Inverse folding.
């Protein structure tokens, strides 16, 4: 038979193990949480000034959007544009849009493409972000895959920025895999003139 002393020691050991286990789980969760926060681009934090906006529009149900090697090219182009923005002392923000009915399938598709700063998925042609960049504010061909590169000007306001005073200029639009690959092969040049045919200044209200 166990003595009372043995039972006390056993109980204390169990308590210590339980405390260690939950503390370990808490620390692991905290570390994971901090790691997730670290993945957020500093440029993704709204601030006044000028920034390049890199928009990808694709779909899990679109064959060309899932062509082998396209994801790597899109990631390369994002890196090229980020470097360009840094050299010009501009911000850089990436947006991923899944133009399809299923929000879940669309999110899975965007996660395979890149780590975007902002994402939108679901509701097909009624997707708010898709409508903004393709049909309502910045009219273009509603096809996937495509890239839209904009220059965005944000003014200062209460709390840092004024969301009611934003201007966006479409610098270029690349629709289809072939156009995207050709732009990649040329190292992602931007139009020399802001009055090029595929640019349009839009004040966002």
């Amino acid at each position: 038979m166990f003595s009372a002393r043995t039972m006390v020691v056993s109980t204390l050991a169990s308590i210590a193990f339980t405390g260690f286990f939950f503390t370990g789980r808490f620390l692991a969760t905290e570390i994971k949480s901090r790691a997730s926060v670290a993945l957020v681009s500093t440029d993704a934090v709204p601030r006044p000034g000028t920034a390049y906006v890199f928009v990808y529009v694709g779909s899990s149900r679109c064959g060309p959007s899932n062509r082998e090697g396209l994801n790597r090219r899109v990631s390369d182009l994002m890196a090229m544009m980020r470097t360009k923005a840094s050299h010009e002392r501009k911000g850089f923000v990436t947006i991923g849009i899944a133009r399809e009915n299923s929000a879940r399938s669309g999110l899975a598709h965007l996660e395979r493409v890149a780590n975007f700063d902002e994402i939108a998925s679901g509701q097909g042609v009624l997707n708010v972000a898709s409508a903004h960049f393709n049909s309502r504010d910045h009219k273009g061909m509603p096809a996937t895959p495509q890239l839209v590169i904009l220059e965005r000007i944000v003014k200062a306001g209460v709390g840092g920025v004024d969301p009611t005073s934003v201007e966006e200029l479409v610098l270029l639009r690349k629709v289809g895999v072939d156009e995207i690959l050709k732009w990649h092969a040329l190292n992602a040049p931007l139009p020399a003139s802001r009055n090029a045919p595929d640019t349009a200044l839009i004040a966002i209200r």
